[in-house]
UniProtKB/TrEMBL annotation:
It comes from Mytilus galloprovincialis (Mediterranean mussel). It holds the Pfam family PIF1. It catalyses: ATP + H2O = ADP + phosphate + H(+). Residues 195-241 form the DNA helicase Pif1-like 2B domain. Residues 1-99 form the DNA helicase Pif1-like DEAD-box helicase domain. Keywords: ATP-binding, DNA damage, DNA recombination, DNA repair, Helicase, Hydrolase, Nucleotide-binding. This is ATP-dependent DNA helicase. InterPro entries: DNA_helicase_pif1-like_DEAD (IPR010285), P-loop_NTPase (IPR027417), Pif1-like_2B_dom (IPR049163). Belongs to the helicase family. One of its GO terms (molecular function) is ATP binding. PANTHER family: ATP-DEPENDENT DNA HELICASE, PTHR10492. Its cofactor is Mg(2+).
Length: 325
Protein backbone atom coordinates (compact mmCIF):
# COMPACT_ATOMS: atom_id res chain seq x y z
CA UNK A 1 0.00 0.00 0.00
CA UNK A 2 1.36 3.43 -0.92
CA UNK A 3 2.07 6.15 1.61
CA UNK A 4 -0.47 8.98 1.70
CA UNK A 5 2.28 11.43 0.75
CA UNK A 6 2.56 9.74 -2.66
CA UNK A 7 -1.09 10.44 -3.42
CA UNK A 8 -0.78 14.01 -2.17
CA UNK A 9 2.32 14.53 -4.32
CA UNK A 10 0.45 13.39 -7.44
CA UNK A 11 -2.40 15.76 -6.56
CA UNK A 12 -0.11 18.77 -6.16
CA UNK A 13 1.86 17.93 -9.30
CA UNK A 14 -1.28 17.78 -11.44
CA UNK A 15 -2.48 21.06 -9.94
CA UNK A 16 0.85 22.69 -10.84
CA UNK A 17 0.75 21.34 -14.39
CA UNK A 18 -2.85 22.31 -15.14
CA UNK A 19 -2.84 25.52 -13.08
CA UNK A 20 -6.26 24.44 -11.78
CA UNK A 21 -6.84 24.44 -8.04
CA UNK A 22 -9.09 21.38 -7.96
CA UNK A 23 -8.51 17.79 -6.82
CA UNK A 24 -5.83 16.32 -9.12
CA UNK A 25 -5.97 19.47 -11.22
CA UNK A 26 -9.50 18.64 -12.33
CA UNK A 27 -8.36 15.34 -13.85
CA UNK A 28 -9.90 11.94 -13.20
CA UNK A 29 -7.40 9.61 -11.54
CA UNK A 30 -8.14 5.90 -11.27
CA UNK A 31 -6.62 4.09 -8.30
CA UNK A 32 -6.69 0.32 -7.95
CA UNK A 33 -5.83 -1.63 -4.86
CA UNK A 34 -6.88 -3.58 -1.83
CA UNK A 35 -7.12 -2.13 1.67
CA UNK A 36 -6.69 -5.63 3.03
CA UNK A 37 -2.95 -5.38 2.46
CA UNK A 38 0.16 -4.56 4.44
CA UNK A 39 0.32 -0.95 5.61
CA UNK A 40 3.15 1.32 4.42
CA UNK A 41 6.52 0.67 6.03
CA UNK A 42 7.62 3.43 8.41
CA UNK A 43 11.19 3.06 9.63
CA UNK A 44 11.13 2.75 13.44
CA UNK A 45 7.54 4.01 13.34
CA UNK A 46 5.00 3.61 16.12
CA UNK A 47 1.59 2.04 15.58
CA UNK A 48 0.03 5.49 15.37
CA UNK A 49 2.55 6.66 12.76
CA UNK A 50 2.02 3.55 10.65
CA UNK A 51 -1.75 3.93 10.68
CA UNK A 52 -1.50 7.66 10.00
CA UNK A 53 0.48 6.95 6.80
CA UNK A 54 -2.57 5.26 5.26
CA UNK A 55 -4.13 7.14 2.34
CA UNK A 56 -7.44 7.17 4.20
CA UNK A 57 -5.80 9.60 6.64
CA UNK A 58 -4.95 12.04 3.83
CA UNK A 59 -6.77 15.33 3.29
CA UNK A 60 -7.32 14.14 -0.28
CA UNK A 61 -9.39 11.13 0.77
CA UNK A 62 -12.64 13.13 0.88
CA UNK A 63 -12.39 13.57 -2.89
CA UNK A 64 -12.27 9.85 -3.64
CA UNK A 65 -15.26 7.74 -4.66
CA UNK A 66 -14.92 4.03 -3.95
CA UNK A 67 -16.17 1.16 -6.09
CA UNK A 68 -16.01 -2.33 -4.60
CA UNK A 69 -15.15 -5.65 -6.21
CA UNK A 70 -16.94 -8.56 -4.56
CA UNK A 71 -15.27 -11.75 -5.84
CA UNK A 72 -11.89 -12.85 -4.50
CA UNK A 73 -10.35 -14.16 -7.72
CA UNK A 74 -7.04 -14.98 -6.03
CA UNK A 75 -8.75 -17.49 -3.74
CA UNK A 76 -10.97 -18.92 -6.45
CA UNK A 77 -8.04 -19.47 -8.79
CA UNK A 78 -6.03 -21.24 -6.08
CA UNK A 79 -6.42 -24.96 -6.57
CA UNK A 80 -5.04 -25.64 -3.08
CA UNK A 81 -8.02 -24.02 -1.33
CA UNK A 82 -10.45 -26.43 0.27
CA UNK A 83 -13.85 -25.35 1.57
CA UNK A 84 -13.69 -22.31 -0.68
CA UNK A 85 -16.67 -20.44 0.74
CA UNK A 86 -15.49 -20.86 4.34
CA UNK A 87 -12.01 -19.67 3.47
CA UNK A 88 -13.34 -16.62 1.62
CA UNK A 89 -15.49 -15.68 4.60
CA UNK A 90 -12.53 -16.21 6.93
CA UNK A 91 -10.44 -13.79 4.85
CA UNK A 92 -13.20 -11.21 4.81
CA UNK A 93 -13.64 -11.38 8.58
CA UNK A 94 -9.91 -10.84 9.08
CA UNK A 95 -9.73 -8.06 6.50
CA UNK A 96 -12.71 -6.28 8.06
CA UNK A 97 -11.42 -6.74 11.62
CA UNK A 98 -14.34 -8.93 12.65
CA UNK A 99 -12.63 -12.24 13.36
CA UNK A 100 -12.98 -13.70 16.86
CA UNK A 101 -10.65 -12.21 19.49
CA UNK A 102 -8.97 -13.88 22.43
CA UNK A 103 -11.15 -13.48 25.53
CA UNK A 104 -9.75 -11.55 28.48
CA UNK A 105 -6.56 -10.63 26.64
CA UNK A 106 -7.34 -7.46 24.72
CA UNK A 107 -8.73 -6.21 21.46
CA UNK A 108 -5.43 -6.70 19.64
CA UNK A 109 -5.23 -10.48 20.10
CA UNK A 110 -6.62 -12.57 17.28
CA UNK A 111 -7.65 -16.16 17.85
CA UNK A 112 -6.65 -18.29 14.88
CA UNK A 113 -8.29 -21.67 14.20
CA UNK A 114 -6.52 -24.40 16.16
CA UNK A 115 -6.04 -26.54 13.07
CA UNK A 116 -3.79 -23.79 11.65
CA UNK A 117 -1.53 -23.53 14.69
CA UNK A 118 1.50 -25.38 16.00
CA UNK A 119 2.22 -25.57 19.72
CA UNK A 120 4.42 -22.53 20.54
CA UNK A 121 7.01 -24.39 22.61
CA UNK A 122 10.80 -24.20 22.34
CA UNK A 123 10.70 -26.51 19.31
CA UNK A 124 7.82 -24.69 17.64
CA UNK A 125 9.93 -23.17 14.86
CA UNK A 126 11.62 -26.48 14.09
CA UNK A 127 8.23 -28.20 14.02
CA UNK A 128 6.92 -25.53 11.64
CA UNK A 129 9.93 -26.00 9.37
CA UNK A 130 9.56 -29.78 9.46
CA UNK A 131 5.85 -29.58 8.61
CA UNK A 132 6.48 -27.29 5.65
CA UNK A 133 9.65 -28.74 4.15
CA UNK A 134 10.10 -32.32 5.38
CA UNK A 135 8.52 -33.94 2.31
CA UNK A 136 10.78 -31.93 -0.01
CA UNK A 137 13.95 -32.71 1.91
CA UNK A 138 13.09 -36.42 2.04
CA UNK A 139 11.98 -36.82 -1.58
CA UNK A 140 14.47 -34.37 -3.14
CA UNK A 141 11.62 -32.93 -5.23
CA UNK A 142 13.07 -29.42 -5.21
CA UNK A 143 10.47 -28.05 -7.63
CA UNK A 144 8.06 -27.77 -4.69
CA UNK A 145 10.14 -24.90 -3.31
CA UNK A 146 8.43 -22.74 -5.93
CA UNK A 147 5.31 -22.04 -3.87
CA UNK A 148 6.39 -22.55 -0.26
CA UNK A 149 7.84 -20.17 2.29
CA UNK A 150 7.88 -19.37 5.98
CA UNK A 151 6.65 -15.82 6.55
CA UNK A 152 7.95 -13.81 9.47
CA UNK A 153 8.03 -10.20 10.58
CA UNK A 154 11.64 -9.01 10.51
CA UNK A 155 14.73 -9.49 8.36
CA UNK A 156 16.64 -10.80 11.38
CA UNK A 157 14.08 -13.58 11.83
CA UNK A 158 14.27 -14.33 8.11
CA UNK A 159 18.04 -14.78 8.37
CA UNK A 160 17.66 -17.03 11.42
CA UNK A 161 15.13 -19.30 9.71
CA UNK A 162 17.07 -19.40 6.43
CA UNK A 163 20.23 -20.41 8.28
CA UNK A 164 18.40 -23.11 10.23
CA UNK A 165 16.77 -24.65 7.15
CA UNK A 166 19.97 -24.39 5.12
CA UNK A 167 21.76 -26.40 7.81
CA UNK A 168 19.03 -29.06 7.49
CA UNK A 169 19.32 -29.14 3.71
CA UNK A 170 20.67 -32.56 2.63
CA UNK A 171 22.95 -31.40 -0.19
CA UNK A 172 26.65 -32.06 0.37
CA UNK A 173 27.74 -29.39 -2.13
CA UNK A 174 28.06 -26.18 -0.15
CA UNK A 175 29.90 -22.90 -0.58
CA UNK A 176 30.20 -19.70 1.45
CA UNK A 177 30.65 -16.34 -0.27
CA UNK A 178 31.98 -13.32 1.62
CA UNK A 179 31.23 -9.81 0.43
CA UNK A 180 33.69 -6.96 -0.10
CA UNK A 181 32.41 -4.02 1.96
CA UNK A 182 33.49 -0.38 1.80
CA UNK A 183 31.86 3.03 2.12
CA UNK A 184 31.00 5.03 -0.98
CA UNK A 185 32.89 8.11 0.22
CA UNK A 186 36.45 6.83 0.39
CA UNK A 187 37.61 9.92 2.28
CA UNK A 188 35.62 8.77 5.34
CA UNK A 189 36.42 5.08 4.99
CA UNK A 190 38.89 5.13 7.87
CA UNK A 191 36.01 5.90 10.25
CA UNK A 192 34.27 2.60 9.57
CA UNK A 193 36.32 -0.59 9.97
CA UNK A 194 35.61 -3.39 7.54
CA UNK A 195 34.67 -5.68 10.44
CA UNK A 196 31.91 -3.24 11.37
CA UNK A 197 30.63 -2.95 7.79
CA UNK A 198 30.45 -6.75 7.58
CA UNK A 199 27.92 -6.82 10.44
CA UNK A 200 25.46 -4.52 8.65
CA UNK A 201 22.73 -5.96 6.44
CA UNK A 202 20.31 -3.24 5.31
CA UNK A 203 16.91 -4.23 4.00
CA UNK A 204 17.07 -5.59 0.46
CA UNK A 205 20.80 -6.25 0.69
CA UNK A 206 22.49 -9.67 0.64
CA UNK A 207 24.36 -10.64 3.80
CA UNK A 208 28.12 -10.40 4.15
CA UNK A 209 28.34 -14.16 4.68
CA UNK A 210 26.21 -15.97 2.12
CA UNK A 211 26.11 -19.75 2.51
CA UNK A 212 24.43 -21.72 -0.27
CA UNK A 213 23.91 -25.37 -1.16
CA UNK A 214 23.15 -27.06 -4.44
CA UNK A 215 19.39 -27.15 -5.23
CA UNK A 216 18.59 -24.69 -2.43
CA UNK A 217 15.95 -22.05 -3.29
CA UNK A 218 17.15 -18.46 -3.49
CA UNK A 219 15.51 -15.10 -4.16
CA UNK A 220 16.86 -12.36 -6.38
CA UNK A 221 17.20 -8.97 -4.67
CA UNK A 222 17.77 -6.75 -7.72
CA UNK A 223 16.44 -6.28 -11.24
CA UNK A 224 19.32 -7.75 -13.25
CA UNK A 225 17.66 -8.45 -16.60
CA UNK A 226 13.86 -8.01 -16.74
CA UNK A 227 13.72 -9.29 -20.32
CA UNK A 228 15.22 -12.59 -19.17
CA UNK A 229 12.96 -12.84 -16.12
CA UNK A 230 15.61 -11.74 -13.61
CA UNK A 231 13.54 -9.40 -11.47
CA UNK A 232 13.57 -8.42 -7.82
CA UNK A 233 11.69 -11.19 -6.00
CA UNK A 234 12.27 -13.91 -8.61
CA UNK A 235 12.79 -17.32 -7.02
CA UNK A 236 15.53 -19.56 -8.36
CA UNK A 237 17.19 -22.88 -7.58
CA UNK A 238 20.96 -23.31 -7.30
CA UNK A 239 22.46 -25.67 -9.89
CA UNK A 240 26.19 -25.06 -9.52
CA UNK A 241 28.29 -22.93 -7.21
CA UNK A 242 31.22 -21.29 -8.95
CA UNK A 243 33.76 -18.81 -7.68
CA UNK A 244 32.63 -15.84 -9.75
CA UNK A 245 29.28 -17.07 -11.09
CA UNK A 246 26.38 -19.09 -9.72
CA UNK A 247 24.42 -21.25 -12.15
CA UNK A 248 20.71 -21.21 -11.32
CA UNK A 249 17.32 -22.24 -12.69
CA UNK A 250 14.39 -19.84 -12.62
CA UNK A 251 11.44 -21.28 -10.67
CA UNK A 252 8.78 -18.59 -11.10
CA UNK A 253 7.41 -16.33 -13.81
CA UNK A 254 7.19 -16.67 -17.56
CA UNK A 255 10.83 -17.75 -17.77
CA UNK A 256 10.47 -20.65 -15.32
CA UNK A 257 12.84 -23.46 -16.23
CA UNK A 258 15.44 -21.21 -17.87
CA UNK A 259 19.06 -21.58 -16.78
CA UNK A 260 20.82 -18.32 -15.92
CA UNK A 261 24.16 -17.30 -14.43
CA UNK A 262 24.28 -14.76 -11.62
CA UNK A 263 27.36 -12.53 -11.11
CA UNK A 264 28.54 -10.52 -8.17
CA UNK A 265 27.47 -6.89 -8.39
CA UNK A 266 28.12 -3.75 -6.37
CA UNK A 267 25.11 -2.81 -4.27
CA UNK A 268 24.59 0.56 -2.57
CA UNK A 269 21.40 0.57 -0.45
CA UNK A 270 19.38 3.70 -1.15
CA UNK A 271 17.79 4.04 2.28
CA UNK A 272 19.75 2.11 4.87
CA UNK A 273 19.27 4.65 7.67
CA UNK A 274 23.04 4.94 8.08
CA UNK A 275 25.25 8.05 8.31
CA UNK A 276 27.17 6.75 5.30
CA UNK A 277 26.47 4.86 2.08
CA UNK A 278 27.43 1.22 2.37
CA UNK A 279 29.02 -0.24 -0.76
CA UNK A 280 28.78 -4.04 -0.86
CA UNK A 281 30.00 -6.34 -3.63
CA UNK A 282 28.14 -9.62 -3.37
CA UNK A 283 25.77 -11.91 -5.25
CA UNK A 284 22.36 -10.13 -5.18
CA UNK A 285 20.53 -13.09 -3.68
CA UNK A 286 19.58 -14.63 -0.37
CA UNK A 287 18.08 -18.00 0.62
CA UNK A 288 14.32 -18.15 0.08
CA UNK A 289 13.19 -20.64 2.70
CA UNK A 290 11.78 -17.67 4.60
CA UNK A 291 10.68 -14.18 3.55
CA UNK A 292 9.17 -11.22 5.34
CA UNK A 293 5.44 -10.61 5.31
CA UNK A 294 5.98 -7.41 3.30
CA UNK A 295 7.95 -9.31 0.65
CA UNK A 296 5.15 -11.88 0.36
CA UNK A 297 2.58 -9.24 -0.53
CA UNK A 298 1.21 -9.89 -4.01
CA UNK A 299 2.69 -13.38 -4.27
CA UNK A 300 0.62 -16.54 -4.54
CA UNK A 301 2.03 -19.41 -2.51
CA UNK A 302 0.54 -22.87 -2.30
CA UNK A 303 1.70 -23.59 1.24
CA UNK A 304 3.02 -21.17 3.86
CA UNK A 305 4.15 -21.22 7.45
CA UNK A 306 3.75 -18.16 9.67
CA UNK A 307 6.25 -17.43 12.42
CA UNK A 308 4.79 -15.17 15.10
CA UNK A 309 6.97 -16.25 18.00
CA UNK A 310 7.94 -12.65 18.71
CA UNK A 311 5.38 -9.99 19.65
CA UNK A 312 4.71 -7.67 16.74
CA UNK A 313 2.20 -5.18 15.42
CA UNK A 314 0.16 -6.62 12.57
CA UNK A 315 -2.87 -4.82 11.22
CA UNK A 316 -5.98 -6.73 10.23
CA UNK A 317 -5.21 -6.08 6.54
CA UNK A 318 -1.69 -7.47 7.01
CA UNK A 319 -3.09 -10.72 8.38
CA UNK A 320 -5.54 -10.88 5.49
CA UNK A 321 -2.65 -10.41 3.07
CA UNK A 322 -0.77 -13.29 4.72
CA UNK A 323 -3.63 -15.74 4.38
CA UNK A 324 -4.24 -14.70 0.77
CA UNK A 325 -0.61 -15.50 -0.19
Amino acid sequence: MIHKHVLECVHRTLCDITQIDKPSGGKVVLLGGNFRQVLPVIRHGTQAEIINSNIMQSFFWQNITMFHLTINMRVRSNAHSNNQADFENFLLRIGNGKEKLYPNVGSAKLQLPKDLCICPDKNGLKNLTHKLYSDILESSDYSKFTDRAILTTTNDDVDTINTMVMDMFPSTVSKTYLSADTVEDESTGYLYPTEFLNTITPSGTPPHKLTLKKHAPIMLLRNLNPAAGLLNGTRLSVLNLGTRLIETKILTGTHAGDTVFLPRITIIPSDAGLPFNLKRRQFPIRPAFSITINKAQGQTLGKIGLDLTKPCFLSWPALCCIFQS
